[in-house]
Write a structure and sequence with these properties.
- This protein is of the alpha+beta class and about 575 residues long.
- It has three domains: about 5-35 and about 250-475, Naphthalene 1,2-dioxygenase Alpha Subunit, Chain A, domain 1 (Alpha-Beta Complex); about 110-220, Rieske [2Fe-2S] iron-sulphur domain (Rieske Iron-sulfur Protein), CATH 2.102.10; about 495-575.
- About 30% of the residues lie in helices and about 20% in strands.
- It contains 16 helices and 21 strands.
- Strands 13-19-18-17-16-15-14 form a seven-stranded antiparallel β-sheet. Strands 7-8-9-10 form a four-stranded antiparallel β-sheet, with no helix packed on it.
- The protein starts with 6 loop residues before the first helix and ends in a 5-residue tail after the last helix.
């Protein structure tokens, strides 16, 4: 996984391409290797006794992860081959159910704290959603972030179409204002008759909100969360002064046109990096595609997730083994990974947010330490907006693959186990995650596990499905045309401000070009013939015309990067098929 020139060179490259390397590194999260879990109820209540079953390589199909990955594999593998069956499941390959409630068991990440604007800078409020339940975020007069159900109690318009005014949330349909200081109660109705009182029902449904390590978290249950249930943390005290002194941090957010379970699956898949992101800066190289050594903690499977580790099977140039990448999947959709080689430490926290059916959000965070100060300095020279756009490209390279994958199962109504052919040398975490969904899915609004799926997931509308030859990246959300701009730029303050500056610079360049052109023409038309009397000035004015025109063209090309998504079809048209 590290450069053939050694750890120092890797650290240098890591700093130069942290955005994309981080994405690639995260995508190379581990997979469990053929360890099967059986669970059985003990007594009454919610007690679960986990009984891990040891995996022994099959002589017939040593590279296949069993557990009913497909009927074909099941027909190949026979009892006694060394691959255990799930003894407590009613159906082959279906894990026994675990107690889980999507509203009361977990907290959900929504966005980064810095993405919610201060009322001193903007009146904007932020729409978000969890499992199709619409929410709205805003800051009150004390700059504290608030969250409520995104429905006005007046006539059910979206409050996210409104604004903040004097620390209150205002619906811009009729001007009703709501105060978080009074637990969401309406405090102003412009149309209220003289002497009339505001109805008690004119109150927002407020949600418990917390900001932890710079991320905004929401509790979806009614009322306050139970004691002891707090938003999960990285354990590294991210954003603290001590952390900032040691680590370099990179945050990135993007919305994606497919279900969050496919996003988690993608981020738990190291094998696709050298193929899907071949020759992409920070991605991979096709010649580096290989098997992975993958392990899963036999005692880790629970309603809260599971843990494991992985590493490359190819040894380093010096013959030493590659370092392990420790990986943890944490409910509802968090992937954490950590690795160290020499002095270089690399950590990542990937938060997959279930926005709605066919919609998800990724809060991508990586940080590292132990790299040379010079490399860190070089990294800081690269603008944040540029690093964000390169991260967009990495995610966009997978979009067409994942959306068609999701559409296949929506169209056919088949289980994943019927069409997935999983390898324990690359897909082990994918299989384990989907089996985890089998076990906890009854506690979710919808789910698609390996051997089962909810009716909502199967019956999802497919009016966005495409005829052959159309680009699935560009026509995904109910036929709405979506681009990089819609998925990332409109949500990200840094990238949005950079786009505004580029547009302004383009306008100024065009204006300067026109002024220079007009000045050079006037100089030629003057009776005194300024060309002869001031040749240097004339040359400068004349040369400035193509200079400003070229600058405007360059800024136009930069502006395009903020709007147009990566197209694999366009890339392949430029390559040879031999």
């Amino acid at each position: 996984m590290f450069s053939k020139h050694g750890t120092a060179f890797v650290a240098f490259n890591l700093m130069l391409h942290v955005t994309n390397v981080a994405l690639a590194f995260s995508f190379t999260s581990s997979r469990p290797a053929g360890i099967v879990f059986s669970t059985e109820r003990s007594g009454t209540g919610t007690g679960i006794t986990r009984r891990p079953l040891q995996f022994v390589q099959s002589k017939k199909v040593s590279s296949l992860l069993h557990l009913s990955t497909s009927p074909l594999i099941d027909s190949i593998l026979e009892e006694g081959d060394g691959i255990p069956a799930v003894v407590t499941s009613k159906k082959p390959g279906v894990a026994e159910k675990l107690d889980y409630n999507w509203k009361t068991s977990v907290w959900y990440p929504l966005t980064y704290e810095s993405y919610v604007p201060s009322p001193k800078d903007s009146a904007e409020v932020i729409p978000v959603a969890i499992f199709n339940e619409p929410l709205v975020l805003w800051r009150d007069s004390d700059e504290k972030i608030q969250c409520a159900y995104d429905v006005c109690p007046h006539r059910s318009a979206a409050l996210s179409e409104g604004r903040t005014r004097d620390g209150k949330l205002e619906c811009l349909y009729h001007g009703w204002q709501f105060s978080s200081e009074k637990e969401g109660q309406c405090v102003t109705i412009p149309q209220l008759g003289e002497g009339a009182t505001i109805p008690k029902q004119a109150c927002l449904k407020m949600k418990s909100i917390r900001v932890v390590e710079g991320i905004v978290w929401v509790y979806m249950g009614n009322g306050a969360p139970p004691d002891g249930l707090d938003p999960p943390t990285s354990g590294d005290d991210v954003c603290s002064p001590a952390f900032n002194d040691k680590f370099s941090l990179y945050d990135f957010q993007i919305d994606l046109p497919y279900d969050h379970s496919y996003l988690v699956e993608n981020l738990l898949d190291p094998a696709h990096i050298p193929i899907s992101h071949d020759k992409t800066p920070g991605g991979g190289k096709r010649e580096n595609a290989q098997a992975y050594e993958m392990e899963i903690d036999k005692e880790s499977l629970s309603p809260q997730g599971f843990t494991g580790r992985y590493r490359n099977t190819r040894k380093k140039k010096d013959g030493k083994e590659n370092p392990w990448t420790m990986t943890k999947f944490e409910a509802p959709g968090i992937i954490r990974y950590r690795t160290k080689s020499g002095n270089v430490e690399f950590m990542g926290n990937l938060h997959c947010v279930p926005i709605g059916l066919g919609r998800s959000r990724l809060l991508f965070r990586v940080y590292f330490a132990g790299v040379p100060k010079f490399a860190r300095m070089l990294l800081e020279l690269k603008p944040m907006w540029w690093r964000h756009l390169m991260s967009c490209k990495i995610l966009e390279q997978d979009m067409g693959l994942i959306t068609t994958q999701e559409d296949h199962f929506t169209r056919t109504k088949r289980n994943l186990s019927q069409d997935f052919l999983l390898l324990n040398s690359s897909d082990a975490f994918v299989g384990q995650y989907r089996r985890w969904l089998d076990a906890v899915g009854d506690g979710m609004p919808w789910f698609q596990g390996l051997a089962s799926a909810s009716d909502e997931a199967r019956a999802r509308a497919t009016n966005h499905e495409l005829r052959p030859g159309l680009d699935p990246i560009r026509q995904r959300s109910s036929g709405v045309f979506e681009t990089r701009y819609h998925c990332h730029v409109v949500h990200c303050p840094a990238t949005r401000k950079a786009l505004a500056r580029i547009k302004k610079g383009k306008k100024l360049s065009l204006a300067a070009m026109l002024v220079s052109f007009a000045a050079s023409v006037n100089m030629l038309a003057l009776p005194s013939n300024s060309v002869k009397t001031a040749p240097t000035l004339f040359r400068l004015v004349s040369l400035s015309v193509p200079v400003f025109a070229g600058l405007a063209a360059l800024l136009q090309r930069l502006e395009r990067l903020f709007h147009v998504s990566f197209s694999r079809r366009e890339q392949l048209r430029k390559e040879l098929g031999v």
